[in-house]
């Protein structure tokens, strides 16, 4: 069993890694984020949970400015990324992002996928980039797969390559958007184990996930979003095991026991959004 992250580290006085304040995001008429305040301290693991369409991916995408916030501020390691004068590429280099779909280059081996951005973006030479790549493949348990192409790897292995690729850039913090939800159930555990180890090593992580046991065991804090707002946040154990807000309770009962929950609650309007209208992940 995992040691709760909070017991391994004290965050009192730790630097702020991410600070989101009054964040709003609209797409045309539709207001998807309605004033989000969220702080992640250095070394902290924060899991974001919530129904489909509640704005979780949009929040993550605003943190590294893949989406431009409509209003509000986002600071990453003290730098305001929403400042129009900021060198966003420099800030982005400090943020590793792992998506549901692994986004590996199909024509490159695992090693090639790990070295290309190091060389192009960080200007590392071949030997150094390969050295860093091999070290990170080892970290995710894929030492023997450096010569494999994505099509020769399982989904779980591809996702671990994607994590190793992000780590090879030497990020200060990592954003994960449902990293295991495209995987067959038997492959989920290996990816979660890698993420758990990263947490143990003190990596700052903001993780959108439906894996409640991971959230409960690994996260310091859990944030429940619904309808573009943070409805409830608190220590993982409290939010997942003893949620205070009725919407959190309804969501968790749906996630933890989907069959029973159908009877309990009609879907919220956000959940009724047709899939084709939702953001592509
Ligand atoms: N680029 C976009 N253009 C228009 N609408 C968008 C765009 N991106 C997201 N949305 C809308 O914003 C809302 C929130 O989407 P988001 O992807 O952030 O939700 P989510 O909580 O990540 O959902 P899921 O659990 O399904 O991934 C949805 O209603 C979606 O349709
Ligand atoms: Mg999403």
TrEMBL record:
Localization, UniProt:
Cell membrane
- Membrane topology listed for this record: Peripheral membrane protein
One function term, GO molecular function aspect: ATP binding
What start-end ranges are recorded for coiled-coil regions in this protein? none
Could you tell me which residue ranges the ABC transporter domain spans?
18-252
Q: What is its EC number?
A: 7.4.2.1
Q: Supply the Pfam families for this chain.
A: ABC_tran (PF00005)
EC category:
translocase
Chief localization class? membrane
Question: What SMART domains does the entry give?
Answer: AAA (SM00382)
Reaction(s) this enzyme catalyzes, per UniProt = a polar amino acid(out) + ATP + H2O = a polar amino acid(in) + ADP + phosphate + H(+)
Top-level taxon of the source organism: Bacteria
Q: Which UniProt keywords apply?
A: Amino-acid transport, ATP-binding, Cell membrane, Membrane, Nucleotide-binding, Transport
Q: Which GO terms describe its cellular component?
A: plasma membrane
- Keyword Membrane attributed: yes
Q: Which family does it belong to?
A: Belongs to the ABC transporter superfamily.
Name by which UniProt lists this protein: ABC-type polar-amino-acid transporter
Q: Which organism is it from?
A: Streptomyces albus
The organism's lineage is: Bacteria, Bacillati, Actinomycetota, Actinomycetes, Kitasatosporales
């Amino acid at each position: 069993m995992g040691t709760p992250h909070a017991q391994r580290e004290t965050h009192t006085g730790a630097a702020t890694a991410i600070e989101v304040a009054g964040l709003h995001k609209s797409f045309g008429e539709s207001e998807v984020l309605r004033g989000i305040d969220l702080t992640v301290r250095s070394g902290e693991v924060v899991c974001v949970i919530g129904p489909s369409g509640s704005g979780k991916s949009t929040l993550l995408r605003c943190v590294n400015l893949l989406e431009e916030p409509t209003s509000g501020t986002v600071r990453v390691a003290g730098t305001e990324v929403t400042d129009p004068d900021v060198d966003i590429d420099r800030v982005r280099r400090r943020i590793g992002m792992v998506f549901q779909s692994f986004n590996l280059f199909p024509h490159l081996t695992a090693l090639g996928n790990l070295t290309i951005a190091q060389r192009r973006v960080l200007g590392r030479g071949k030997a150094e980039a390969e050295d860093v790549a091999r070290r990170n493949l080892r970290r995710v348990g894929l030492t023997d797969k450096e010569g494999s192409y994505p099509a020769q790897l399982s989904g779980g292995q591809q996702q671990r390559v994607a994590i190793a690729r992000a780590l090879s850039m030497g990020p200060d913090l990592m954003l994960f958007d449902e990293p295991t939800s495209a995987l067959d159930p038997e492959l989920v555990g290996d990816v979660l184990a890698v993420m758990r180890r990263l947490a143990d090593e003190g990596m700052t992580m903001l993780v959108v996930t439906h894996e409640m046991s991971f959230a409960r065991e690994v996260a310091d804090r859990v944030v429940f979003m619904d309808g573009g707002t943070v409805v409830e946040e608190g220590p993982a154990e409290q939010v997942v095991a003893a949620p205070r807000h009725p919407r959190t309770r309804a969501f968790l009962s749906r996630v933890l026991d989907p069959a029973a929950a159908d009877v309990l609650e009609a879907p919220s309007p956000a959940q009724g959004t047709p899939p084709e209208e939702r953001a592509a992940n």
